[in-house]
Amino acid sequence: MLRAMAHPARLAILTRLQTEGPATATECAEVAGLSPSACSYHLRMLAKHGFVEDAPARGDGRERVWRALQRGWMLRDPDDGELTPDLLAAQGAVIETVLDDAQKRLAEYLGQAARESSEWRSAAGFTHSVLLADADELREIGARIAEILDPYKVVFRDPAEAPTGARLVEVHLRLFPRPPRGRKAG
Q1: Could you give the CA distance from residue 105 to residue 176 in angstroms, rounded to a whole number?
Q2: Residue whose C-alpha is closest to residue 170's, from 101, 95, 112, 122
Q3: Along the 186 residues of the chain, how does pLDDT read in single tens digits?
Q4: 3-state DSSP call for residue 146?
Q5: Is 24 exposed, middle or buried (0-12, 13-18, 19+ CB in 10 A)?
Q6: What are the structural domains, with CATH classification, of the chain?
Q7: What is the pTM of this model?
Q8: N or C terminus: fewer CB in 10 A for the chain?
């Protein structure tokens, strides 16, 4: 299931369906950089693994419309007994794909930031912090940040209720412990 998400085109398709709602393979192909037929293949693979399904037809019903089954997703380690090398590798592949995709969007923003209004440039921010926390504190920090972000998440917020001028905005948060000194990761 995780390996199905680790493909960059599938992640783009799933993100499109989660953020903008139901779409055809042709519409998804635009964001995935694929042909509609290749996109149809990836949609079927996502459906096979329970990420998407057929949506109600629109218009004359000749086009196949797809929708995401989940409005978002989060990766967390399962109970220790279920953590296998294959699962860790699959999680790592998904995370790497997500981070690569996010890096591309960040580079795209930085390349055109000068064309943004001063209002948007001053609202954007980039923070790097190193914390001193134990596992419980780190979990609490993540929960508190999620609580702040939840009302604004595109999957929960009705666009009709958002203020005029609202745009899709990304937040990339990475909470992870550094390996102890003297021990290399991996």
Answers
A1: 22
A2: 101
A3: 777 778 889 989 998 998 888 999 999 999 999 999 999 999 999 999 999 999 998 877 788 999 998 876 677 666 556 778 888 888 888 888 888 888 998 999 999 999 999 999 999 999 999 999 999 999 999 999 989 998 998 878 888 999 999 998 988 888 889 988 876 655
A4: helix
A5: middle
A6: 2-68 (1.10.10.10)
A7: 0.73
A8: C
- 10: closest CA among 28, 35, 37? 28
Structure tokens at 52: 């998407």
Phi-psi category of residue 172: left, alpha or beta, with phi > 0 → left and psi -120 to 50 → alpha: beta
Q: Which residues contact 74 (CB under 8 A, 6 or more apart)?
A: none
